Amino acid sequence: MDGLEPNLLGTPKLYWQGKPVLSPAPKNLLLLCYLALHPDPQPRDHLTQLFWPGGKRASLRFALHKLRQLPGADQWLQTPDNCVNIIATSDVMRFEEAFNQGHFEDALSIWQGETTGSKTLLNGLQADDCPEVETWLEQERTRLQSHYLEALHGRLRELERDDQPAAALGVARDALRHDELNEAVHRSIMRLEAALGNSDAALVQFERVRELLHTELGLDPEAETQTLRKTIEDNAPRHRQQARVINSPTDV
Q: What does the pLDDT look like over 205-225, one tens digit per residue?
């Protein structure tokens, strides 16, 4: 049986048999996406209360009538035993499968698709008149974003372990864009820049994290970060004088 193939990371896009499907009205699209993210059949009463609080089943029946008009709906939209189910394989499902198996490179490739950087689950869809759906949506967005960051860190560890500093540096900078106060990532960037022969850049990165921590948290870098800075400085004698100039007297 052919299933629906929704891309739900970013702006939702629907595909069936490899061809784009014109999206339904926003409320119906949100219902479809909710079902695609729940592999088990959902009771009709439950869906009615979620999407039309205090409403009647007629609202759900009308929404399902509209969804049945989409290509292939006779194959991927099912209504067994007073429930509703969608046969679908989404990018979210594939991302989570790769993530749970520790295949971080595959997970990041699925998440990023043809673009780079982070995405938002069901970007542009809101559920202002459905409080429980809105709560679920925000929780899912937070959970998936957390998994994305974990995948970035996992891939960074793999690349550092495999001695691929150039590739690792790109992943580290992606991770830092989403969590700029993560001092461990700053240290990774320092190590990677030094490994690539860019001691100046490594020391500049130390200054960035030092200033960021001081401004945002009123803290100094951790001892491990300061030790790493000293190691890089000691291993690059030609930069010692410059490093002493740019470092404040409190750096030890």
A: 999 999 999 999 999 999 999
pLDDT of residue 2: 78
Q: What is the 3-state secondary structure (H, E, C) of the chain?
A: CCCEEEECECCCEEEECCEEECCCCHHHHHHHHHHHCCCCCEEHHHHHHHHCCCCCHHHHHHHHHHHCCCCCHHHHEECCCCEEEECECCHHHHHHHHHHCCCHHHHHHHHHCCCCCCCCECCCCCCCCCHHHHHHHHHHHHHHHHHHHHHHHHHHHHHHHCCCHHHHHHHHHHHHHHCCCCHHHHHHHHHHHHHCCCHHHHHHHHHHHHHHHHHHHCCCCCHHHHHHHHHHHHCCHHHHHHHHHHCCCCCC
